[in-house]
Q: What sequence folds into this?
C-alpha cells in the first residue's frame, strides 16, 4: 500500500455501482490498453503477460457506463503514444515467444523488444496495421487533450507536479496537462497517481482504493 502521508489525490472506486461519473475524464495509457487492444487472446495463447481479469472487466464496464452518461474522454498525445508502444510491445512479444529460435525460459524485455523490431522487420507492417486499427478504435471515444498554452508551461507545470509527488515524470506530464486543460479527473490503474495533488483518480486497482480508504481520501 501507498503510505497515507503520500496519498494526496481523491480516489473514486469505479467498481462500485454508485460510482460517480464526471463530465470529462483523462484516460491513462494503461486503461487505453485494457479497453482497446484487440489481440489479448492471441497474446495469452502465445504465453505473454496478459492483464488481470479485473483490468479488462472493470475498466470496460465503467467506460461503457460513462459514455452512456455523456462523459467525454481525453488523453494527452504522449499518452496515446504510450498506448501505441504497449500494443507494439505485446505484438512483438507474441512473435518472439512463438519463435522456435527463442531459448526456453527466456523473458521478453525492452531490450529484446528493440532487437525484435529488426529481427521481425518483415512483420512490422502487419503489426503496425493492427496498432493503427486499435488506435482508430480508441480515438472514436477518446479525443487528444489540448496541449499546454506554451512549451514553457509544459515544462514548468510538469516539473512542479513531479517534484511534489512520488510518481514518475510521464505521470507528472499527464497530470499537469490534464489540470492545465481543466480536467482534474483521471482514469488509471496506476497507484503512483495517488501521490499527486489536485486530481481525482478513478480506478479499479484495489491497492489504490485501500490506500485511499486508509488515508481518508476515498470518495463516498
A:
Amino acid at each position: 500500500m501507498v503510505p497515507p502521508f503520500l496519498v494526496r489525490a481523491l480516489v473514486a472506486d469505479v467498481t462500485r455501482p454508485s460510482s460517480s461519473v464526471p463530465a470529462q475524464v483523462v484516460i491513462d495509457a494503461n486503461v487505453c490498453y485494457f479497453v482497446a487492444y484487440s489481440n489479448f487472446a492471441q497474446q495469452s495463447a502465445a504465453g505473454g503477460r496478459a492483464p488481470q481479469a479485473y483490468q479488462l472487466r472493470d475498466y470496460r464496464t465503467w467506460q461503457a457506463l460513462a459514455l452512456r452518461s455523456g462523459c467525454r474522454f481525453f488523453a494527452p498525445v504522449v499518452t496515446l503514444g504510450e498506448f501505441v508502444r504497449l500494443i507494439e510491445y505485446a505484438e512483438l512479444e507474441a512473435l518472439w515467444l512463438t519463435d522456435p529460435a527463442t531459448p526456453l525460459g527466456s523473458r521478453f524485455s525492452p531490450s529484446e523488444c528493440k532487437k525484435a523490431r529488426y529481427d521481425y522487420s518483415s512483420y512490422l507492417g502487419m503489426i503496425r496495421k493492427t496498432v493503427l486499427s486499435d488506435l482508430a478504435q480508441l480515438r472514436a471515444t477518446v479525443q487528444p487533450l489540448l496541449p499546454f498554452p506554451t512549451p514553457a508551461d509544459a515544462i514548468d507545470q510538469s516539473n512542479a507536479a513531479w517534484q511534489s509527488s512520488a510518481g514518475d515524470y510521464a505521470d507528472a506530464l499527464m497530470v499537469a496537462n490534464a489540470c492545465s486543460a481543466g480536467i482534474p479527473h483521471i482514469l488509471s490503474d496506476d497507484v503512483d497517481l495517488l501521490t499527486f495533488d489536485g486530481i481525482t483518480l478513478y480506478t479499479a486497482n484495489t491497492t489504490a482504493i485501500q490506500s485511499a480508504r486508509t488515508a481518508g481520501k476515498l470518495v463516498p
User: Anything to note?
Assistant: The beta strands are 10-13, 24-27, 72-75, 142-144, 185-187, 200-203. The longest helix spans residues 77-97.
